[in-house]
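To whoever is on call:

I kicked off a structure prediction for a single chain this morning and the downstream step that reads the tokens threw a length-mismatch warning. I double-checked the sequence; it's 422 residues and nothing unusual in it as far as I can see. Pasting both halves so you can look.
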Amino acid sequence: MGQGAGNVEQGEAAAGGPGRILLAEDDASLCRSLTRILAKGGYAVEAVQSGDAARDRIMAQEYDVILSDINMPGMTGPELLRECRMRWPHTEVVLMTGDPHLAAAVQCMKAGAFDYLEKPARGAALLAKIASAMASSRNRRRVDDTAPLTPPLPNGMRTIRCLGSGTMGIVLLVEKDGQPFAMKILRADATLMDSGTAHRRFCREATILSAIDHPGIVRVHDWGSTPAAQPFILMEYVDGKTLHELAAEGSLTQAQKLDILGQVGRAVQFVHERAIIHRDIKPSNVLVTPDLTVKLSDFGLARFVAGRSSMTLPGSVVGSPAYMAPETFSGAEPDCLSDIFSLGVLSYELLAGTSPFHGGDLQQIIYAVNHTTPPPLGSLTAGVPDALQRVVMRMIAKSPADRCQGVGEFLAALGQPCECGS
């Protein structure tokens, strides 16, 4: 679909099929009972028994409805609600309380919950409440899927269609002076993020991209605010697919894969030489045209190397866990070597046809990234040069000191020219 808006592929997972529910209840007996009731009601239920475990789940995927006890060990129900609102604006949250007083209900609603239930919830009341929350969640998504087509645009621009929608922004295909462009617009409800972080990240992306001129990186033509005061970035329109989509089709030859990796590598090398780190290198952020020209996109998490980002809270997870370097999970500030790890994971996945790190949820993925050693590339696919196999395995080394210290070594193993100093 061309330009992405971030997290679009995950958001689509909850859009159809049986309703997906995350149940967070620390009473094991009640948790089993509620799970049975919801499963008999036709819902797909995942159950956890702590707020922290629930947080890990919502960091990795989207649900239609979250049903949580208001008082949970670790992260409480209202805290979980706030985390969910920042990540998944379509998800409805129903909080449960064993306190029958009105004050408890008021607390739930003030926190922004869809509704509340008194414990122990009876089957009919529970299913009725969940059905209402499910309908509201899916209606939110339907409204947002059409709403991006109608925001007011600056004079001289018209909307052609919506290219994608995520928790932070929408991307429209627009026309200006007879030419197509991709316009990324910050969602109005993205202000739910603390202290204007969403707005500052968006403006930082525009600032960084506007200073970059490289054939392998999506080019910014303009940025500003819409008549509705929503920040926008006007970018070149890339008519193609993401590398994630293209690889899934299984049509790429080995030579084409190596060429694509070389183009991605040169784009990453270019930004590193300008003291910029991307921080979210993954297949869905690599756009590929029909003639296999590559464009690195989505610099929403990018920053300049010097100085710690004030937009990243200590201990927070920023990026896509399966592509993040081990040290970033323990609070280390991402750097160029973190990007090299992400590029290594992307390369391994494209060449081998499988990710080097697997897990059913965030916790399992983090464990795999930190502790498991992937099989050698040569054991999974034929035709990868020995030198490239060795370099890719070094790129995904646990310790930054054991990794390639620059993208040039990766490009040399690919047999592609280095653009150092360009």
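Update from on-call: the warning came from a stale cache, not from the record. Cleared it. Sanity check on the structure: Residues 123-146 form the longest helix (24 residues).
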